[in-house]
Design goal:
Length: 275
Protein backbone atom coordinates (compact mmCIF):
# COMPACT_ATOMS: atom_id res chain seq x y z
CA UNK A 1 0.00 0.00 0.00
CA UNK A 2 1.25 3.48 -0.88
CA UNK A 3 0.12 6.85 0.42
CA UNK A 4 -1.17 7.94 -2.99
CA UNK A 5 -3.56 4.96 -3.09
CA UNK A 6 -5.57 6.09 -0.07
CA UNK A 7 -8.73 8.26 0.04
CA UNK A 8 -7.18 10.93 2.22
CA UNK A 9 -10.33 12.99 2.70
CA UNK A 10 -11.95 10.10 4.56
CA UNK A 11 -8.81 9.18 6.50
CA UNK A 12 -8.22 12.81 7.46
CA UNK A 13 -11.76 13.07 8.83
CA UNK A 14 -11.36 9.80 10.73
CA UNK A 15 -8.06 10.86 12.28
CA UNK A 16 -9.45 14.24 13.33
CA UNK A 17 -12.40 12.45 14.91
CA UNK A 18 -9.97 10.15 16.73
CA UNK A 19 -7.96 13.11 18.02
CA UNK A 20 -11.11 14.94 19.12
CA UNK A 21 -12.36 11.99 21.18
CA UNK A 22 -8.98 11.37 22.78
CA UNK A 23 -8.53 15.03 23.61
CA UNK A 24 -12.02 15.26 25.08
CA UNK A 25 -11.34 12.25 27.29
CA UNK A 26 -7.76 12.90 28.43
CA UNK A 27 -7.28 16.61 27.87
CA UNK A 28 -4.06 18.28 26.74
CA UNK A 29 -0.99 16.11 27.31
CA UNK A 30 1.96 18.43 28.07
CA UNK A 31 3.74 16.25 30.63
CA UNK A 32 4.77 13.26 28.56
CA UNK A 33 8.54 13.32 28.87
CA UNK A 34 10.17 12.92 32.30
CA UNK A 35 11.60 16.43 32.50
CA UNK A 36 13.60 16.65 35.72
CA UNK A 37 16.51 18.84 34.67
CA UNK A 38 17.28 22.22 33.16
CA UNK A 39 18.35 20.54 29.91
CA UNK A 40 14.99 19.38 28.50
CA UNK A 41 16.07 18.80 24.91
CA UNK A 42 19.10 16.72 25.85
CA UNK A 43 17.06 14.87 28.45
CA UNK A 44 14.44 14.01 25.82
CA UNK A 45 17.11 12.75 23.42
CA UNK A 46 18.50 10.46 26.13
CA UNK A 47 15.00 9.40 27.14
CA UNK A 48 14.11 8.45 23.57
CA UNK A 49 16.90 5.86 23.64
CA UNK A 50 16.32 4.72 27.22
CA UNK A 51 12.60 4.07 26.65
CA UNK A 52 13.14 1.37 24.04
CA UNK A 53 11.42 -1.79 25.37
CA UNK A 54 11.12 -0.08 28.77
CA UNK A 55 8.30 1.25 30.94
CA UNK A 56 8.31 4.99 31.63
CA UNK A 57 8.72 4.48 35.36
CA UNK A 58 12.12 2.89 34.74
CA UNK A 59 13.14 5.63 32.33
CA UNK A 60 12.41 8.17 35.05
CA UNK A 61 14.62 6.25 37.48
CA UNK A 62 17.49 6.18 34.99
CA UNK A 63 17.15 9.88 34.17
CA UNK A 64 17.15 10.76 37.86
CA UNK A 65 20.26 8.66 38.47
CA UNK A 66 22.06 10.26 35.51
CA UNK A 67 21.06 13.68 36.84
CA UNK A 68 22.38 12.84 40.31
CA UNK A 69 25.75 12.14 38.68
CA UNK A 70 25.49 15.41 36.68
CA UNK A 71 25.46 13.44 33.43
CA UNK A 72 22.51 15.22 31.84
CA UNK A 73 25.15 17.23 30.04
CA UNK A 74 26.67 16.46 26.68
CA UNK A 75 30.31 17.00 27.66
CA UNK A 76 30.05 15.28 31.03
CA UNK A 77 28.36 12.24 29.50
CA UNK A 78 30.91 12.08 26.69
CA UNK A 79 33.73 11.96 29.24
CA UNK A 80 32.06 9.51 31.65
CA UNK A 81 33.25 5.88 31.79
CA UNK A 82 30.78 3.46 30.23
CA UNK A 83 30.69 1.51 33.51
CA UNK A 84 29.37 4.59 35.35
CA UNK A 85 26.70 5.18 32.70
CA UNK A 86 25.76 1.50 32.74
CA UNK A 87 25.28 1.51 36.51
CA UNK A 88 23.12 4.65 36.33
CA UNK A 89 20.77 3.27 33.69
CA UNK A 90 20.39 -0.27 35.03
CA UNK A 91 16.64 0.23 35.61
CA UNK A 92 16.05 0.15 31.82
CA UNK A 93 16.10 -2.81 29.48
CA UNK A 94 19.25 -3.52 27.45
CA UNK A 95 21.33 -1.16 29.55
CA UNK A 96 24.54 -2.91 28.45
CA UNK A 97 23.90 -1.81 24.86
CA UNK A 98 22.38 1.55 25.70
CA UNK A 99 25.24 2.76 27.91
CA UNK A 100 27.91 2.87 25.16
CA UNK A 101 25.30 4.20 22.74
CA UNK A 102 24.58 7.16 25.05
CA UNK A 103 28.30 7.85 25.42
CA UNK A 104 28.84 7.72 21.65
CA UNK A 105 25.89 10.03 21.10
CA UNK A 106 27.32 12.53 23.58
CA UNK A 107 30.74 12.30 21.94
CA UNK A 108 29.14 12.91 18.56
CA UNK A 109 27.40 16.06 19.79
CA UNK A 110 30.64 17.29 21.37
CA UNK A 111 32.71 16.61 18.26
CA UNK A 112 30.24 17.85 15.65
CA UNK A 113 28.06 20.41 17.45
CA UNK A 114 30.27 22.06 20.07
CA UNK A 115 28.67 20.06 22.86
CA UNK A 116 25.20 21.55 22.42
CA UNK A 117 22.43 19.26 21.18
CA UNK A 118 20.36 22.30 20.20
CA UNK A 119 22.71 22.86 17.25
CA UNK A 120 22.09 19.29 16.08
CA UNK A 121 18.32 19.65 16.40
CA UNK A 122 18.26 22.82 14.28
CA UNK A 123 19.18 20.87 11.14
CA UNK A 124 16.50 20.55 8.44
CA UNK A 125 14.16 17.66 9.18
CA UNK A 126 15.22 15.33 6.37
CA UNK A 127 18.93 15.84 6.97
CA UNK A 128 18.57 15.51 10.74
CA UNK A 129 16.57 12.30 10.45
CA UNK A 130 19.22 10.79 8.17
CA UNK A 131 21.94 11.86 10.61
CA UNK A 132 20.16 10.43 13.64
CA UNK A 133 19.63 7.07 11.92
CA UNK A 134 23.40 6.68 11.58
CA UNK A 135 23.84 6.77 15.36
CA UNK A 136 23.89 3.59 17.50
CA UNK A 137 20.60 2.47 19.07
CA UNK A 138 18.63 4.92 16.91
CA UNK A 139 16.02 3.37 14.63
CA UNK A 140 13.16 5.10 12.82
CA UNK A 141 10.83 5.33 15.83
CA UNK A 142 13.57 6.69 18.11
CA UNK A 143 14.74 9.15 15.45
CA UNK A 144 11.22 10.46 14.94
CA UNK A 145 10.65 10.73 18.69
CA UNK A 146 13.78 12.88 18.94
CA UNK A 147 12.72 14.96 15.94
CA UNK A 148 9.23 15.58 17.31
CA UNK A 149 9.68 15.89 21.05
CA UNK A 150 13.20 17.31 21.31
CA UNK A 151 13.45 19.22 18.04
CA UNK A 152 9.79 20.13 17.47
CA UNK A 153 9.91 18.89 13.88
CA UNK A 154 6.52 17.97 12.41
CA UNK A 155 6.97 14.20 12.02
CA UNK A 156 4.45 11.60 13.12
CA UNK A 157 5.85 8.89 15.39
CA UNK A 158 4.76 5.36 14.50
CA UNK A 159 4.77 2.89 17.38
CA UNK A 160 3.00 -0.22 18.62
CA UNK A 161 0.26 1.81 20.32
CA UNK A 162 -0.58 3.56 17.06
CA UNK A 163 -0.71 0.32 15.06
CA UNK A 164 -2.86 -1.36 17.70
CA UNK A 165 -5.41 1.45 18.01
CA UNK A 166 -5.66 2.18 14.29
CA UNK A 167 -5.97 -1.54 13.59
CA UNK A 168 -8.77 -2.06 16.09
CA UNK A 169 -10.61 0.99 14.81
CA UNK A 170 -10.37 -0.42 11.28
CA UNK A 171 -8.96 2.79 9.78
CA UNK A 172 -6.23 1.19 7.67
CA UNK A 173 -6.09 -2.36 6.28
CA UNK A 174 -3.06 -4.43 7.29
CA UNK A 175 -1.76 -1.62 9.49
CA UNK A 176 0.19 -4.08 11.64
CA UNK A 177 2.24 -5.18 8.62
CA UNK A 178 2.78 -1.86 6.86
CA UNK A 179 6.42 -0.75 6.80
CA UNK A 180 7.30 2.02 9.23
CA UNK A 181 8.10 4.60 6.57
CA UNK A 182 4.93 3.86 4.59
CA UNK A 183 2.75 4.34 7.66
CA UNK A 184 4.53 7.52 8.69
CA UNK A 185 4.02 9.02 5.23
CA UNK A 186 0.35 8.02 5.27
CA UNK A 187 -0.28 9.85 8.53
CA UNK A 188 1.69 12.92 7.56
CA UNK A 189 -0.09 13.09 4.19
CA UNK A 190 -3.49 12.72 5.84
CA UNK A 191 -2.72 15.42 8.44
CA UNK A 192 -1.19 18.28 6.44
CA UNK A 193 -2.16 20.94 8.99
CA UNK A 194 -3.10 21.24 12.64
CA UNK A 195 -6.79 21.48 13.60
CA UNK A 196 -8.46 24.85 13.88
CA UNK A 197 -6.68 26.86 16.59
CA UNK A 198 -10.04 28.18 17.77
CA UNK A 199 -11.13 24.66 18.69
CA UNK A 200 -7.74 23.69 20.12
CA UNK A 201 -5.97 26.86 21.26
CA UNK A 202 -3.24 24.87 23.03
CA UNK A 203 -1.95 23.81 19.60
CA UNK A 204 -1.65 27.41 18.35
CA UNK A 205 -2.21 26.10 14.81
CA UNK A 206 1.21 24.45 14.91
CA UNK A 207 1.54 21.10 13.13
CA UNK A 208 4.43 19.87 15.30
CA UNK A 209 2.45 20.59 18.48
CA UNK A 210 -0.49 18.75 16.98
CA UNK A 211 1.64 15.68 16.23
CA UNK A 212 3.17 15.83 19.72
CA UNK A 213 -0.23 15.99 21.38
CA UNK A 214 -1.81 13.39 19.11
CA UNK A 215 0.96 10.86 19.61
CA UNK A 216 1.03 11.44 23.38
CA UNK A 217 -2.73 10.87 23.54
CA UNK A 218 -2.40 7.66 21.54
CA UNK A 219 0.20 6.39 24.00
CA UNK A 220 -1.99 7.35 26.94
CA UNK A 221 -4.92 5.50 25.42
CA UNK A 222 -2.82 2.44 24.70
CA UNK A 223 -1.78 2.31 28.35
CA UNK A 224 -5.16 3.04 29.93
CA UNK A 225 -7.80 1.40 27.72
CA UNK A 226 -6.54 -0.17 24.49
CA UNK A 227 -4.22 -2.71 26.10
CA UNK A 228 -2.57 -5.34 23.92
CA UNK A 229 -4.08 -8.47 25.46
CA UNK A 230 -7.11 -7.37 27.47
CA UNK A 231 -8.48 -4.05 26.23
CA UNK A 232 -10.61 -2.21 28.76
CA UNK A 233 -13.52 -1.44 26.45
CA UNK A 234 -16.34 -1.28 28.99
CA UNK A 235 -14.30 -0.93 32.17
CA UNK A 236 -13.08 2.24 33.81
CA UNK A 237 -9.46 3.21 33.27
CA UNK A 238 -6.41 1.43 34.59
CA UNK A 239 -5.02 2.17 38.04
CA UNK A 240 -2.76 5.17 38.29
CA UNK A 241 0.79 4.55 37.13
CA UNK A 242 3.55 4.97 39.69
CA UNK A 243 5.35 7.82 37.95
CA UNK A 244 7.92 9.86 39.85
CA UNK A 245 5.99 12.98 38.89
CA UNK A 246 2.37 12.44 39.90
CA UNK A 247 1.11 14.99 37.37
CA UNK A 248 1.85 12.49 34.61
CA UNK A 249 -1.07 10.38 35.73
CA UNK A 250 -3.11 12.77 37.82
CA UNK A 251 -5.91 13.59 35.38
CA UNK A 252 -5.09 11.75 32.16
CA UNK A 253 -7.87 9.19 32.44
CA UNK A 254 -10.64 10.32 34.75
CA UNK A 255 -13.22 7.89 36.13
CA UNK A 256 -15.28 6.84 33.14
CA UNK A 257 -17.58 4.14 31.84
CA UNK A 258 -15.03 2.74 29.41
CA UNK A 259 -13.13 3.43 26.23
CA UNK A 260 -14.08 6.73 24.56
CA UNK A 261 -13.40 5.22 21.13
CA UNK A 262 -16.12 2.57 21.30
CA UNK A 263 -18.42 4.40 18.83
CA UNK A 264 -15.56 4.45 16.29
CA UNK A 265 -14.12 0.99 16.92
CA UNK A 266 -14.70 -1.80 14.42
CA UNK A 267 -13.12 -4.29 16.79
CA UNK A 268 -15.52 -3.37 19.57
CA UNK A 269 -18.55 -3.65 17.29
CA UNK A 270 -17.39 -7.04 16.03
CA UNK A 271 -16.89 -8.34 19.56
CA UNK A 272 -20.37 -7.20 20.59
CA UNK A 273 -22.06 -8.94 17.67
CA UNK A 274 -20.13 -12.22 17.87
CA UNK A 275 -22.35 -14.99 19.30
Amino acid sequence: MHAQQLPFDLLTAQLHALYARLHEHYGHEPHWWPIFTQRPQWEIVLGAILVQQTAWERVEQAIQQLAALELIDERALAAAPVAIIRAAIQPVAFYNAKAPALKRLAQYVVERYAGDVRHLLRQPTTLLRRELLRLPQVGPETADSILLYAGQHAVFVVDAYLRRIVGRLGLLPDVERLPYETLRQIFESALPTAPDARAYPHLAGDRARFFWDFHALIVEHGMHHCLARRPRCDQSSAPRRNFAQAIKCATHCPPCDGCPLRPLCAGYRAARTTP
